[in-house]
Design goal:
CATH architecture: Roll
Order of helices and strands: EHEEEE
Helix content: under 10%
Number of strands: 5
Distance between the termini: 28 Å
Mean pLDDT: 86
CATH class: Alpha Beta
Radius of gyration: 18 Å
Shape: elongated
Low-confidence stretches: none
CATH topology: Thiol Ester Dehydrase, Chain A
Length: 134
């Protein structure tokens, strides 16, 4: 948790814990929903890497401004997927983040993009609700 300056890219292998039901009743929508949820994991932190801070910084106010996902091919979220993330731009308290999910055989199965707010709060807090921040 002691961040250093790094290039704005990272890779994470992930899969659902346990196995989702297989068979005729298995719905690909379930796998897509779980992957959409998981796609928010670590994505915004990619833009922070060149700035030597982390999502765990107590002064950081992170918020997702928008997040989109596209599904390109069939996949199972209970099988390993590589999440390759990069951030082409971070400035003005905003970061643009992109992600690609690859199956173990190298197929691009989904893509994400997210713009996030990453504002640093001042260290001094107002003394009362009516006092403006310093």
């Amino acid at each position: 948790l002691n961040p250093i300056v790094r290039a704005p890219q990272q890779h994470v292998w992930l899969r659902a814990k346990g196995q989702l039901e297989r068979g005729a009743n298995t719905d690909s929508g379930l796998h897509q929903a779980v992957l959409a949820y998981a796609s928010d994991y670590n994505l915004m932190s990619t833009a922070l890497l060149p700035h030597a801070t982390s999502i765990f910084n107590q002064q950081l106010q992170p918020a997702s401004l928008d997040h989109a996902i596209w599904f390109h091919d069939d996949f199972r979220v209970d099988e390993w997927l590589l999440y390759a993330m990069d951030s082409p731009r971070a400035s003005g308290s905003r970061g643009l983040n992109r992600g690609s999910f690859f199956s173990r055989d190298g197929r691009l199965v989904a893509s994400t993009i997210q713009e996030g707010l990453m504002r640093i709060h001042p260290t001094q807090k107002p003394t009362s609700p009516n006092t403006p921040p310093h």
